[in-house]
C-alpha cells in the first residue's frame, strides 16, 4: 500500500513533497496563525482592568508586577514541556489543551475577587501562551512548508504581537462602554478562543513522522540542535531586551499614565498598549526583506530609543514621550522577535522547531519577568520616576550590548 503519511503537512520535508506543500493554500497560513493571536489576546486583556481590581481588592504596584510575573512563571514552566512534547506527538495535541486552559483562565478572570484568583488566572494564561509560542508558531511553519519559511516566521511573529496589542485595546473599549467590564471582556475572549479551537481541529496537520528517541527527557530546558546555538544567542540578545521593554509598559504603563496624566481611563491604557503592538506588527512587514542581521540591529536600536524616551517621559511628565517610548518598545520587540524566529526557521529542522521556538522564548521571557517585577518593587520604595529611570538605564545597556553582539557576528548570518 502507498505511504499516505507523505501527504501530511507537518511531516519532515523530503524529496517529492513539494507538490503537497504547494497544494496547501496560502490562506491556511493565516488561519494557522489565528490560535496564536487568540491566546495572545488573552495574555494582555487584563492590562486595562488592573486599576479596577486594585480599587476593589486593594494591592500595591509591587503586587501588580508579581501578578504579571505569575504569567511569566506559567509560561516558562510550559516551555519546559510544550516544545519537546509538540515535536514528539504533534502540534494539535499540545494546542487543544492549551486553548481549553485559556478558556478556564477566562472564567477565573471573570469571577475574580482576590489576588489569589488573579494569580491562578495569570498562571493558566502563561501555560497556554507557552504552548502556542512553541507548538502554535511551529504549526504555522509546518503548514507553510520549507519554501515559505520566511513568510511563516513573519505571520507567526505578527500573530503574536497583534494579539498582544488587540487584547488590551479590546478590553479597554469594552470595559468602558459595556456593563460588568471584567465579565464582558472575558466572555468575548472565550468566544474568540472557541473559534481558535475549531480552527485547530481543521488545520492540515499530522503527527511527526519520526518520533524522537524515548531515552530523551520529556521535561528539560529547551535547546537547539548543534550548530544553531549562535543563531539562538543572537536572537535572544535582541529579543530579550525588546520583550522586557513591552512587559514593563504592560505591567506599569497604567500606573505611569495615572501619574503623568492623572487618568485611569481604561481606553487610554488599552490604546497605548495597542499602539505599541501595532508598531511591533507594522515594523515586521516593513523590514521583512532585509538581512536578518539588519533586522536584529534595528531591534536593538528601537529598544534603546524606547528607554531613552521612557526616562525623558517620567522626568518631564510627558504623555507624548511615554507613547513614543511605547512605540519604540514595540518596534524593538517586533524586529527582535522576527529576526530570532527567522534565524531558527532557516536552520532548525521541523522535528526540532517547536523546541527551538521555546528556547528563544525562554531566553526572552526570563528577563521580561524579573526586571519589571524588580522595577515595580523599586518604584514602591523610591518612587515611580526613579524606579523607571533605573529600569530604563539597565535595559538600554542590555539592548546596546545585544546590538554590539549582532554587529560582531553579522558576517555569519544573512
From TrEMBL:
Gene3D superfamilies: MFS general substrate transporter like domains
Domain Major facilitator superfamily (MFS) profile residue range list: 1-414
Lineage of the species this protein comes from: Bacteria, Bacillati, Actinomycetota, Actinomycetes, Streptosporangiales
Keyword Ion transport: no
Keywords: Cell membrane, Membrane, Transmembrane, Transmembrane helix, Transport
InterPro entries per the UniProt record, alphabetical: MFS, MFS_dom, MFS_trans_sf, MFS_Transporters, Sugar_transporter_CS
Transmembrane helix listed as a keyword: yes
Protein name (database record): Major facilitator superfamily (MFS) profile domain-containing protein
Membrane topology recorded in Swiss-Prot or TrEMBL: Multi-pass membrane protein
Location(s), subcellular: Cell membrane
UniProt-listed PANTHER family: MAJOR FACILITATOR SUPERFAMILY MFS_1 (PTHR23517:SF13), RESISTANCE PROTEIN MDTM, PUTATIVE-RELATED-RELATED (PTHR23517)
Annotated TM spans: 27-51, 63-82, 94-117, 123-144, 151-171, 183-201, 232-261, 267-287, 294-315, 321-346, 358-378, 390-409
